[in-house]
Amino acid sequence: MAKRVFSAALLGCAALALAACNASKNESLSAGASLDDAEKASETLLKTGGNGDDWGAIGFSYDEQRFSPLKDIDASNVGQLGIAWTADLDDARGQEATPVVVDGVMYVSHAWSKVSAWDAATGKLLWKFDPKVPGERAVHACCDVVNRGVAVWGDKLFVGALDGRLIALDKKTGTEVWSTQTFDAERPYTITGAPRVVKDMVLIGNGGAEFGVRGYVTAYDADTGKERWRFYTAPNPNKEKDGAASDDIFASKANATWSDKGEWQTSGGGGTVWDAIVYDKDLDQIYLGVGNGNPWNHGTRSNGQGDNWFLSSVVALDASTGAYKWHYQETPAETWDYTATQPIILAEQQVDGKPVKVLYHAPKNGFFFTIDRATGRLIDAKPFVDGINWATGYDLKTGRPIENPEARFYKTGKPFIAIPGALGAHNWHPMSFNPATGLVYIPAQQIPQAYLNDMTELDKRKIVGFNVGTSLTGTLLPDDKAAFRAAVAATTGRLVAFDPRTGKVAWSVAHPAAWNGGTMTTAGNLVFQGTSTGRFRAYAADTGKQLLDLDMQSGIVSAPSTFRVGGVQYVAFMTSKGGAFPLVAGVAGGVTRKVPNIPRLVVLKIGGTAKLPAPPASTTLAWNPPPQFGTAAQVAAGKAHFGRYCIVCHGDSAIGNGFTPDLRVSGTLANADAWKGVVLDGMLKDRGMVSFAKVLTPADAEALRAYVIDRSNWTKANLPDAAAPVGR
Ligand code: HEC
Question: Which of 337, 459, 542, 700 is catalytic?
């Protein structure tokens, strides 16, 4: 690290005596300062954020506040935002990345871990990079083949590929400089998160806790890709040493929080770090947001015993060595897929009249946490959504939740409909913090979910598919129109402006559907957000008054960024529905079902006059289900297999959400051989639809076909509008 700051300073201050330059320049730099070229290529941009011309990292700067000091766009003119340029993208899969802009060049990652670079003002494509991820890897991705962004550092740029490669590219040309495989490709790991660069190291985690892996984060040398340190977030299967930075804390404390009996020993325990990895420049430490356990069910995972460190925790590590400093476990003995992977924001807040360095966190479990960064002490935990029913609050003395005993379904033996469910009161969609208002803008949502303990033989661990230890089949919606409608009504979204100083919601805006885009906020007193229903909006940051509402043709899940080139402020984001919710939502996706899914980069400026390409013609899909066949037992078997293997990509009751093909109108339905060709022979494997021959027999495939035909007929007869098939 010293090396890079030194050489950057040398370049930038060639005319000055080196020592004086180092002292004067680096110490005088603060947020909002203009940076010269060399400083932009160094960590100075990430430490200060610069003057807002650049958006140097997905979260803007190391603090990851997603707050821009720019105020050329404000309440007086935001209503005149129009399109500067757009670019249609290759794959109609989720686009979740935040565009990074340095020196007028925009770098952004896409579905299938592709990367592109653009002239940020004109939209001229500079280069594209395709890591050629094998299509079959998609079956190991719980939540679509997405990527949440790149990290830019010096003359390089880093991206994590779905298949586990961490790849360094030349920033100018997009050619590969080095590539390192970060996990055992035989295990169901993936990477969807953005790398972070800290002290000349690139940090990356992984995903896979639905399937069965052991989470960890690794730091690699930014120049060579060589490993510097690794920290495991779940125990070694034999509670032995790994030769990793995590060894000491597991031996001294963490191993004891895992039962010696439990499925974690074969599954890996989960605890993957698939999104938040944040560097604290003030305290020189790193925070990891750690994921759920595997299996979800604490009863089978750890025999119902122990808190299972570091699942659902924020873990602080020494930046240089990866050594453990402290952790705070938001959901001890996690059993509902309540990840703590959600984005982490660093800020300073007055607590008892004194300024305290805090971190803000709004994880899946529905509570907003304010934590003292120096010690890990819980300062406050308050709900940011209504209706939470797994806990009534937190005991601030012990830092532990006050749980509803009914919520532990594996203890009561009774199903529990939890709010929030596994998709969370807040998922990965980035939140933002505005220092001027003191508010945090959270893309929140309400998606209840049933958890059941009673597992059939089919729910047991398999080498393909989710292994969560709670029956997903049991959560499939019943043959009941009212239940379908209730599910739609219960699933909503909300932009929440949360005030950490009071622990209360300052203002909020209701959205008709869940899974809306991430937020970004500016010194122009604005908050920007795209919605899953295809709108791009701006609100006054202090009051929530809506100031802009543009039709974007497509659902939006990503977060915007903003930057300035040639004195003009721009706002950039990607459209596309993407991610877990559209895959599984089915009819509960409500109005989003009919919103198109268009992968596109969009850049706005005041007075922009470009037009979106013509929207796709709305086609009514022919809906002529083949006649039902098979016995009731066969259809029931098909339902069980569907819940086990297919629902996560093809939607509840096979009702598609315009994202993967709606199986109820597939041409293969009428033809047993064509169906088997896809489901067992892997005809579409390169496109992300693998063969399930490892877990399904030809008879199982035929039962699945009988079930999907049954659902097609039932929904056509009972929910002809709400469940009408939509194209993708
Ligand atoms: C990891 C996600 C995923 C899972 C799990 C999955 N599919 Fe698919 N499936 C896809 C995608 C993506 C496509 C579309 C591929 C393409 O673009 O041609 C597809 C296509 C299909 C098609 C062809 C539809 C058509 O008309 O083009 C059939 C049939 C199908 N899937 C059946 C199933 C069944 C049955 C299961 C469960 C055993 C299943 N799928 C599980 C992702 C998935």
Answer: 337
Within 10 angstroms of residue 720's Cβ, the number of other Cβ atoms is 10
Q: What is the pLDDT of residue 20?
A: 36
Mean pLDDT of 3-9: 31
pLDDT surpassing 80 at residue 476: no
In b/e form, how buried is each residue of 594-620, taking b as 16+ CB within 10 angstroms? Answer: ebbbbbbbbbbbbebeeebeeeeeeee
pLDDT score of 21: 37
Q: Which of 21, 44, 22 is nearest to 31 (CA)?
A: 44
Residues 6+ apart with CB under 8 A from 489: none
Q: What is each CA distance from 399 to 275, 331, 376, 377, 683, in whole angstroms? A: 24, 10, 10, 8, 52
Assigned token pair, 600: 């596109």
650: CA distance to ligand 1 center in Å? 7
Overall average pLDDT of the 316-334 stretch: 98
- Does 648 contact ligand 1 (Cβ within 6 A)? yes
Output the CA 304–ligand 1 centroid distance in Å.
Answer: 36
Cβ(515)–Cβ(579) under 8 Å? yes
For atom 42 of ligand 1, which residue has the closest CA?
689
Question: In angstroms, rounded to a whole number, what is the distance separating the alpha carbons of residues 196 and 374?
Answer: 21
CB 558 within 8 A of CB 574: yes
Q: 61 with 45: CB under 8 angstroms?
A: yes
Residue nearest to atom 29 of ligand 1 (CA): 675
Residue 216's alpha-carbon distances to 232, 233, 275, 660, in angstroms, are 4, 5, 12, 31
Look up tokens 């292994």; give the residue: 467
**Distances from the Cα of 117 to the Cαs of 173, 181, 319, 576, 705, in angstroms?**
9, 24, 30, 19, 43
Ligand 1 pocket, residue 442 CB under 6 Å: no
Counting ligand 1 atoms within 8 A of each CB, the residue from 649, 657, 659, 683 with the most, and so the one to mutate, is: 649
Which residue shows structure tokens 């009249």? 353
At residue 7, the pLDDT reads 31
How many CB atoms are closer than 10 A to CB 343? 26
Question: What's the rounded Cα separation, in Å, for the pair 716 and 728?
Answer: 19
Confidence of residue 96 (pLDDT cuts 50, 70, 90): very high
| 282 flagged as catalytic | no
**Prior bond to 295 cis, omega within 30?**
yes
CA-proximal residue: ligand 1, atom 9 (nearest): 689
Instruction: For ligand 1, atom 32, name the residue with the nearest CA.
Output: 679
Residues 600 and 118: their CA atoms lie apart, in Å, by 13
Least confident of 40-44, 62-66, 227-231, 333-337: 40-44
Distance 662 CA to ligand 1 centre (A): 9
What single-letter amino acid sits at 622? A
Reference 297, options 416, 386, 438, 162; nearest CA is 416
Cβ(649) – ligand 1 distance below 6 Å? yes
Atom 40, ligand 1: which residue's CA is nearest? 646
Nearest atom in ligand 1 to the alpha carbon of residue 669 is 29
Kindly give, in sequence order, each residue whose CB lies less than 8 Å from that of residue 361, ignoring residues fewer than 6 positions away. Answer: 289, 314, 330, 340, 342, 344, 345, 368, 369, 371
| Any atom of ligand 1 within 6 Å of the Cβ of 678 | yes
pLDDT in tens, 122-162: 999 999 999 999 998 988 988 999 999 999 999 999 999 99
